User: Fold these one by one.
Assistant:
Number 1:
Amino acid sequence: MTATESTPDPAPASTASPAPAMSPQGIPLPPDLRSGPIVAGVDDATACGRPLRAAAFLAAATGRPLLLVHVRRRAMPMVEGYVPIPEEIGASDEAEDAVEAELVRTLTASGDLTGVSWELLSTTGEAGAELVRIAEDRDAACVVVGKRHSGFGDFLHRIASGSVSRAVVARQKFPVLVVP
């Protein structure tokens, strides 16, 4: 080989990362955004207005479906040695089914979920623990919960059942949006 001859430079190694996932509006999504739905806790349609709208906005912005989780409260405390009779269980289930049907009607009529693919999932248990469990099972992109305003009634509620937003944030393994 002479000084005037040169070998061609090898092609540079491709260091470009794959193109980021894009939202329906063409905005790049974070590469670590989980693949699952936006999960939001709902108790009744009037009380969950702002958090519901925030969750619907996130679902539309990211192109993810919206999974609304309604956690049924146990009608009777689970006390050691207490065995509920079937009539108690059936009456409680019928009342909860009616509440759930009304919730679906109200959510549909509200217009807050227009243009968003959504599903309502009902479960029974402690609201914070159930939201975390479902979010993990579905690989949630984000969990949206509301924060109740302070007042004597809310104070008594938090003493009796705890704060859902606090329970979800404490067990976070995914992004959590708390909406006042």
Note: Residues 5 and 135 are 63 Å apart (CA to CA).
Number 2:
Amino acid sequence: MQTIVKLTDTLAEEKLRQILCTANSAAVTSKNLRLLHEHDVRFISRLPNTLAMCDKVKHRALERNHWEVVGRLGERKDTAIYRIQSFHDWDDGSPPLGAHHESAS
């Protein structure tokens, strides 16, 4: 997450809140989530199953069912369609997160 550190050092807080970073799922670790949250950086990524909270987040997101449609993040017709939601009140002190995507029809 050196890129995030560079962004936070370079951009003003107001600018940081205006951008949405994309991250490879390998970058989604507890340490990196804390760093992103600490710097108030918004990002989108697939939540890796290796992360302990993955099942909890997926179940909660599906139960809550308050999705914001982001749409396609690519130009091809078969690009996934993304819907997201965030959580800000984790019991275990983990940073907020939550997302979902569906395959294109």
Note: The CA atoms of residues 67 and 85 lie 5 Å apart.
Number 3:
Amino acid sequence: MTTATTATTESPESTESPESTASTTPAIPTFTVHAIPPDLLGKVRSTGLDVSGNPIEFRVAGGGEPLRCCLREAAPAEPIILFGYEPPLPTSPYREIGPVFTHAAPCPGPTTDAYPPHWRNRAQIFRAYDADGRIHPTSRAHDGGSPEETLTTILADPEIAQIHIRNITYGCFMFVVTRPTTLATTPA
């Protein structure tokens, strides 16, 4: 089971229509979306403790809670858990622990290779980090429109190692975006 999904764009060198090049021009991955890793979720579920050693909270979803395991909103009455999570960053003053919801039991993870459809058009914070785990000035509030374009633009800066997508109101971590197939640090 994978927690990373990759968004792609057509090769910029191609001037032909997408229909005529679909089988000959490979898509170029522009970024990878990372949910919370299943092995970390397995540890949280089996021990009943979060990264700080606090007990996890079992809940019944009211509906709409953002699930960081499969990157969708919870349906009413789904069993979920709430716990403290430390998103992946190298050791730095910018490492944070914050509350996240996931399914109470293992799930298949994200079902798409694109920006999570349930969170499209939702204002988010795109917080960019460099390789040292420091917040980079390309970070920004995003209105929810065309997230792929904005993420690709941020990742075009070679200093960017990863982007944490966060809830604009509460500041909670949602998921990580990196260049294709890279994720520098995953806390245990």
Note: The mean pLDDT is 85.
Number 4:
Amino acid sequence: MMMTSVTYDHQNTVELSIGGMTGACCADQVQRKLNKLEGVTATVDLATEKAKVTFPEGLDPHQLIAQVEETGYTAALAASTSTATATSSEYGDDRSH
């Protein structure tokens, strides 16, 4: 039987905040659930309640959140990985002078 390996050329990384974990068993459960998604590599840190997740282009980060929530925990994109950033011009604050 020949085994093949799939390589994903374009990978994205996101950090998730995970809520509701009380011990190492919980972190392991979340990590295993995330790693079941094709092309996903996740590492969950119980102490920081964060998951670092590498996933292939085309996979929506909200699918990662849904995967965690199916396990019974809460998840959200960590503040440091949020793609929504407000610029000063959006608020009429011109600080360019």
Note: Strands lie at 11-19, 41-45, 50-56, 74-77.
